[in-house]
Structures are given as structure tokens and as C-alpha cells.
Specification:
There is one protein chain. By secondary structure, the protein is an alpha+beta fold. 25% of the residues lie in helices and 39% in strands. Strands 3-2-1-4-5 form a five-stranded antiparallel beta sheet.
């Protein structure tokens, strides 16, 4: 049996993983395994657990349109889903969007 002190010490030595910024996944196809909304100083944002090229990582899934898409996907129980993050050049402000 592992002592709690040893367990906590080992856990503290694990490398910290960074949440990917939205720009890091722009133009890439990935699977959203899970997504959750969080409150930040700038309002509601989304963080997703994604499979990107075979690696499971967390990523910021930002943008007003993306937020509406993620709310609809999670409410409908449609996750996991494979998508691509784009900037829609045809809409004002070039918003981030998820496309199939």
C-alpha cells in the first residue's frame, strides 16, 4: 500500500500540462471528447478535452459562435464529435467556428 505522503509527493512531480490556446488548433481536425463552460474574468469560456493527432489534451474553445455550438452539442448529448476549428472569413469579425 502506498502512503499518502508518497502518493502526493509523486503527484507533485508530474509535469504540468498546458491548455492549448484556440490558435494552436485553428485549421486542424480534432475530436471533442468533453467540453465544459467556465466563468472567467472575461465572461463565459469553454475548455474542451480533445483528441488532437492521437494525443488527448485540453484546449480553449473560444468564440461566441463556438460557445453557442458547444452549448447545443453538450445539451443534445452529441459528444464526442470530430470537427475542425476555422475562422469564417464570410462573416463580420471573422469568428471562430466549428465545422464538420
Amino acid at each position: 500500500m502506498v502512503k499518502l505522503d508518497d502518493f502526493l509527493s509523486d503527484a507533485a512531480k508530474l509535469p504540468e500540462t498546458e491548455t492549448l490556446k484556440t490558435d494552436a488548433i485553428l485549421g486542424k481536425e480534432f475530436s471533442i471528447l468533453d467540453a465544459r463552460s467556465i466563468e472567467t474574468q472575461f465572461g463565459t469560456s469553454w475548455v474542451g478535452t480533445i483528441d488532437l493527432d492521437g494525443s488527448v489534451v485540453e484546449a480553449w474553445l473560444n468564440g461566441a459562435v463556438v460557445g453557442r455550438q458547444l452549448a447545443a452539442l453538450t445539451e443534445a448529448g452529441k459528444l464526442p464529435v470530430t470537427v475542425k476549428m476555422i475562422r469564417d472569413e464570410d462573416e463580420y469579425g471573422n469568428p471562430f467556428k466549428l465545422v464538420a
